[in-house]
Amino acid sequence: MRIEWLGLGAALGRVLGEALAALTDLPPFDTSAMDGWAVAGPGPWRIRDGGGILAGHGAPAPLPDGEAVRIATGARIPAEATAVIRSEHAHADEAKGLLHAQRSVSQGQDIRPRGQECRSGEALLPAGTVVTPAVLGLAAAAGYDELPVRARPRVDVLVLGDELLTAGLPHDGLIRDALGPMIGPWVHALGAEVTPPQRLGDDAEALWKALTGSEADLIVTTGGTAAGPVDHVHRVLDRIGAELLVDGVAVRPGHPMLLARLPSDGPWLVGLPGNPLAAVSGLLTLAGPLLGGLAGRTPGDPYRVAVRDDVHGHPHDTRLVPVVHRASGEPGTAGGAEHVVPLHYNGPAMLRGIAAADGLAVVEPGGVRSGTEVEILDLPWASATPWTEGCFT
Ligand SMILES: Nc1nc2c(c(=O)[nH]1)N[C@H]1C(S)=C(S)[C@@H](COP(=O)(O)OP(=O)(O)OC[C@H]3O[C@@H](n4cnc5c(N)ncnc54)[C@H](O)[C@@H]3O)O[C@H]1N2
Ligand code: MOO
């Protein structure tokens, strides 16, 4: 696992490579929680002459028993003080120079003692925590200028197919490459660093060169996974001596997807089928978990939601069907908790359904009836950090 230290701003959205321990007590000194008066012992108290105690100053003079001094929220509590009284709960008799409490005063009230939140050296967050804005705030408070984060897994994207155009309208049997613009941002949302897609056509030699020359942690290929005349992925992996770990999955769309490891601890390879929704299946079920592991992210718990409508199933394979989440209580629905609505345009060559979807429903062989709870695979941007930047096409 590679770890890099990044300034707080740059660490946003990354994953902690080491546990974060406090570099200081928090708060670092006894602190007033309110604007008011620091008092010592039982009242009434003699008001100390001179100005009050403000935040951002060194240790104030000790407060003798029977005295009170004005204090601001965040200021250091003077030694010997026993409580803070909020300004709205005290009456200062300026003529007599005395402070009276208007409510009972308990020992230590409105004093945040040093180390109340944590002691120096105490574990704050485990390795694997995603660095959110709140984590940045905690890290800064705890004394960090830089954070140890996992290096992003590096991903190469190889788009196969002689029939693909990168601009303009389809013509003469050529179609637009829908996967080149999609895979990079998708794997980036999974926490990876992605090189721009390399479009290799249906050229086995170019594929061999790209695979053997890659310095990535993961290579994602699109197309060429089946057994057609120009489907070279299996042949080239065989020639390289790669280990095929998954060679086809009983799922529709996406059944020809594959997972391999190139020799000598080389890159992982996820081979996505060329049909675009089949490629999405492989992204969610193979590339996603693999990249999550490489990036050190803790997988979310699987969850199930009822489907609103009957969903047609494949006779012997699992189906993945694009769905949207909907709140219950819509007219004509059975009530209860949230449900998902299956979308049309879910054929293997179509992206129209998934482009409108929140996730994919896992539909068991034979299909499911309306109201059945099914597992939902979220799309990565549902939980992705919107502050990640990048350019992928
Ligand atoms: N005899 C059989 N033929 C096929 C089977 C099968 O079981 N037996 N499975 C079908 C299924 S299911 C899939 S999925 C595809 C997988 O094929 P490949 O991974 O080899 O993909 P290609 O043949 O290269 O392309 C399939 C399809 O997708 C289009 N495509 C490819 N790349 C892109 C892209 N970047 N953007 C948009 N569209 C793309 C390509 O033009 C083809 O139409 O095999 C079936 N055949
Ligand atoms: O697996 Mo294919 O993926 O049904 O389009």
TrEMBL record:
The keyword Magnesium applies. Residues 156-293 form the MoaB/Mog domain. InterPro entries: MoaB/Mog-like_dom_sf, MoaB/Mog_dom, MoeA-like, MoeA_C_domain_IV, MoeA_C_domain_IV_sf, MoeA_linker/N, MoeA_linker/N_sf. Pfam families: MoCF_biosynth (PF00994), MoeA_C (PF03454), MoeA_N (PF03453). Pathway: Cofactor biosynthesis; molybdopterin biosynthesis. Its cofactor is Mg(2+). Keywords: Magnesium, Metal-binding, Molybdenum, Molybdenum cofactor biosynthesis, Transferase. It comes from the Bacteria. It catalyses: adenylyl-molybdopterin + molybdate = Mo-molybdopterin + AMP + H(+). Its EC number is 2.10.1.1. Belongs to the MoeA family. Catalyzes the insertion of molybdate into adenylated molybdopterin with the concomitant release of AMP. This is Molybdopterin molybdenumtransferase.
